[in-house]
Structure formats: C-alpha cells, structure tokens
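Consortium newsletter contribution from the modelling node. Members have asked for a concrete example of what our holo predictions look like. Here is one, prepared for the adenosine-5'-diphosphate complex that several groups have been discussing at recent meetings.
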Amino acid sequence: MRLELDNISIHFGAIKAVRNVSIDVPSGSVAAIIGANGAGKTTIMRGIVGLVPLAGGDIRLDGTVINDVPTEQRTRSGVALSPEGRRLFPEMTVEDNLRTGAYLRRDAAAVKGDMDMVYDLFPRLTERRQSLGRTLSGGEQQMVAIGRALMAAPRLLLLDEPSLGLAPGVIHMMAGAIRRIADTGVTVLLVEQNSHLALSLSRTGHVLESGRLIRSAPSAELLQDEDLKRAYLGDDPMAVK
Ligand SMILES: Nc1ncnc2c1ncn2[C@@H]1O[C@H](COP(=O)(O)OP(=O)(O)O)[C@@H](O)[C@H]1O
Ligand SMILES: [Mg+2]
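And here is the predicted structure:
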C-alpha cells in the first residue's frame, strides 16, 4: 500500500506541531522519519491513523484521499500502528493482547495463521503466552506491540519508536524482526530518535525539525552526511540532542 502525505499540517491550538509535510512512501518500501524529541514524529503517525485531525493537506492511501475516513475504517483498509510507549493492556495475557489487534477480522483461520507468524517472529513470546502484560520486560512489551499491529494483517505498518528504552542486544533482535516484516512486502513507516537504526533499516529517510521536513534523501546518503551526523547521529552519549 502506497502512503502519501501531501503538504499536511497538524495543530494543537496555537501549537503548530506539523507544518506542510510531504512524504511519499511507495508500496512495499521502508521509510524512516528521524528527528529530536518533540519534532512532531508521533503527531504524524497519529494523523495517519486518524487520531488527530489535519489542519491542512491530504493523506492518500493507494491514491485515495482518506482525510475524513474514521480510524476504524483505516484499520480495515490495512493501516496498523504500533504506538510509542507500547500501550498494552496490563491485566491481559500476551495472547489476548495480540488477539485485540485482530478485533475487526472474521477470518478465524487466517487470524490463527498470523498468530503463529507472530510467535515465529518473536519466539520469546511463545514462552510468555499466558503472562500478563504488566509482567513483561520492555523488550517483550515492544514485541507484543508490534505483534498486535501485525495481527491486523496490515498493508501499511507504522512503527513509532520501536527501540526506545531497549538494551542494545534487544534492539538488534528488533531490527532483525523489522527486516523480516519488511521482506513480506508490507509498507513500513518507521519513526525513531535512534536515527542510526532507522536509517539502516530504511530505503528513504526524512528529517523532521520543529514540525518541518528539512530533508528527504536515500537513507544510505543520510547515514554518510557529516552535518546530520553531528546533529542526529552523534555517538557521544553525553551529547545534548
Ligand atoms: N495532544 C497534544 N496536545 C498539545 N500538544 C501536543 C499534543 N501532542 C503533541 N503535542 C506537541 O506537539 C509537538 C510534537 O510532539 P510529538 O509529535 O509527540 O513529537 P515527537 O514524537 O517527535 O517527539 C510537541 O511540541 C508536543 O508538545
Ligand atoms: Mg514521539
């Protein structure tokens, strides 16, 4: 599924969180939006699923403008979000959390197949199947959040900060899982403060600063860019970003 953001703006009262952003994500490709905390990344994701209204511009899926389409209908048409902060149901098991992702589907056999696919992608969750959401580690929670989005059988998967707060080893595992998901042909839009990870997973990168897109380029090119390295890819852990 192709996603086009055409000159979109999103405001919260006087706060112009997203200003005239245009991004084209071709069907089956992986794109990344990178930018500092507060740049407007999550707001764009919420706009795509219809949780916040546009102040201007158009969102198109496979060429059709969906600005006024309700969230549930966007889910039905194949858009799924793994939200920042994971947002699991703490008193529900892993299995039931995953099942909530398929709540609009009636194709029981295909849902079962997708559940098996999620456990295959994240073998750790097989062991944690009956554990409650609140007992999971950060990495396990993230696996469930992505797994739940996959249970909607998306054609466009939105991943908001999948690596946030995870240990390096877990991030590595997560990166491998995201690659495997992308290889299935689903379109992926990835949002990360971890620019290095996002750019290594994507074909195209978009740099967001204070709600504005300041650059779009092949991710490989952005990874090499000296100015960008200083601003977003610095490996000095004490650097203020
Ligand atoms: N519901 C909201 N109400 C008011 N301001 C918001 C709301 N959500 C986000 N913002 C503001 O919009 C800007 C962008 O936030 P956000 O999209 O969360 O950034 P990012 O995900 O890049 O860290 C910030 O200034 C934030 O404070
Ligand atoms: Mg965010």
